[in-house]
Design goal:
The protein is of the alpha+beta class. About 25% of the residues lie in helices and about 25% in strands. The chain folds into two domains: about 75-180, Uridine Diphospho-n-acetylenolpyruvylglucosamine Reductase, domain 3, CATH 3.30.465; about 180-400, Alpha-Beta Plaits (2-Layer Sandwich). It has an eight-stranded antiparallel β-sheet. A four-stranded mixed β-sheet has the order 1-2-4-3, with helices on one face. A four-stranded antiparallel β-sheet has the order 5-9-7-8. The longest helix is centred in the middle third of the chain and has 14 residues, at about 265-275.
């Protein structure tokens, strides 16, 4: 057992957690039996405190790895500590891709279930949990196999449940058949936010994948100008190369950038160059799977560009009927002087049965905001109120500062989730700094 210093939410001094690394399900059961409070942790890529537990035990799942045989119809069982990167290295050469992927491959399968991650194809294929056939889950009451047909309540409480129902040990899912390692991409520039949202609302159904980069630094008639990229997997043809898995990053950021490097001036300049460099309209451009789905994975330690102060990731979803909230949010940002280095707009399709799953039919906007501007806390509080008034919600996997008073309104199935959690964890031993902060549990 090793020790790790974790800084829980609101603490001014270090709070030490015990970190254990079980290699088998039996070891998970043993570790859980001796710990009073615990939470699972994968690669630690959640932007907030979902996998932290000051004063408790953190169960590192990375040794719960391994990929089983992929069946002829694409079904595979994977250790929960296996990353999407490791799975793709095994599956792509056999002609299989993950059915849903977030913007990085550095996420474990257990984490993908716990956060019910989504990608550029939610409007067509839903989120990760939609493609999970069953999983093994260790709760304080023992190990169980759950699926949509076997204890569906516990299954859908676990999908998006942020690890609060148990420790996932294996995940069985249905993979996506591919014939090449390329995506055929259509790219188009739009002069403002209204134009790109109209294009996405009317045309995204014709594409499997869709995402828009939005400039949050512009005002007036060009507010929210955007670059929209949409695509589908390329079919096999005479030019198709041998299927190969993802390659390690060739570029890296060797040191923390000076604090304040990413400021209003530099981000405006970057956004101008990025927008002008994009084609006004280009159809059917071949892009590699890595370039299209995981561009940031091509630069190791890219977060160092934000300096020692780092950045806040903020993502919200609002229903179709409240699309104007996206406009208001970007207006608030552009007028505040708080720079956003990266703003990503996507369409969400139908929700699944996950009680705490984030996606809802409508819009989602994700923002990277450098820490430093004095106006940042107030801007984020204002965005919370906009989202709440619109009937939307904040993504737990990217949250580090939401107040607990807003959670119940944003997640109306919270009581249903807590009833299932209480059945699986009657002593409330599965907690995290996030669940403490947001009062999810007793």
């Amino acid at each position: 057992m090793s020790k790790e210093t974790l800084y829980g939410w609101g603490r001014t001094s270090p709070s030490v957690s015990d970190v254990v690394s079980p290699a088998t399900e039996l070891e998970v059961i043993k570790d859980m039996s001796t710990a009073k409070r615990y939470i699972a942790r994968g690669l630690g890529r959640s932007y907030g405190d979902a996998a932290q537990l000051g004063g408790g035990t953190v169960i590192d799942n990375r040794d719960l790895d391994g990929v089983g045989v992929i069946s002829n119809d694409g079904v595979v069982t994977v250790g929960a500590g296996t990353s999407i990167d490791e799975l793709l290295s095994f599956s792509i050469p056999q002609g299989w891709f993950v059915p849903v992927t977030p913007g990085t491959r550095q996420v474990t399968l257990g984490g993908a279930v716990a956060a019910d991650v989504h990608g550029k194809n939610h409007h067509v294929d839903g989120s990760f949990g939609n493609h999970v056939l069953e999983m093994r889950l260790v709760t304080p009451k023992g190990a169980v196999t759950i699926s949509p047909n076997n204890d569906a309540e516990l299954f859908w409480a676990t999908v998006g449940g942020m690890g609060l129902t148990g420790v996932i040990t294996t995940v069985t899912l249905k993979m996506l058949k591919i014939e090449s390692t390329q995506v055929l991409v259509d790219t188009e520039r739009f002069a403002n936010l209204d134009a790109v949202m109209a294009a996405m609302q009317s045309g995204d159904d014709a594409y499997k994948y869709s995402v828009a980069w939005v400039d949050c630094m512009t005002k007036g008639s060009s507010m929210g100008r955007a670059i929209l990229t949409r695509g589908d997997h390329a079919a096999k043809d005479d030019s198709t190369k041998r299927l190969e898995g993802p390659k390690p990053a060739k570029l890296f950021v060797p040191f923390n950038a000076p604090s304040g490097l990413l400021n209003t001036f530099t981000i405006k300049a970057f956004n101008e160059l990025w927008f002008r460099a994009a084609p006004k309209k280009k159809i059917g451009q071949p892009q590699s799977l890595s370039a299209f789905f995981h561009p940031l994975d091509g630069v190791r330690d890219w977060n160092r560009l934000y300096g020692k102060r780092g950045f806040v990731q903020y993502q919200f979803a609002v229903p179709d009927s409240a699309g104007e909230t996206v406009t208001k949010a970007i207006e608030r940002l552009s007028s505040s002087g708080v720079p956003s280095f990266l703003a990503v707009l996507k369409r969400f399709g139908a929700s699944n049965e996950g009680m705490l799953s984030f996606p809802m039919p409508g819009w989602t906007l994700a923002l990277d905001l450098p820490v430093g501007p004095s106006a940042l806390p107030q801007v984020l509080d204002d965005l919370d109120e906009m989202v709440l008034s619109a009937g939307g919600r904040i993504y737990f996997a990217k949250d580090s500062r939401l107040s607990h008073e807003k959670v119940r309104a944003m997640y109306p199935r919270l009581d249903e989730f807590l009833n299932v959690k209480n059945r699986a964890d009657p002593e409330d031993r599965l907690i995290s700094d996030l669940s403490r902060r947001l009062h999810i549990g007793r």
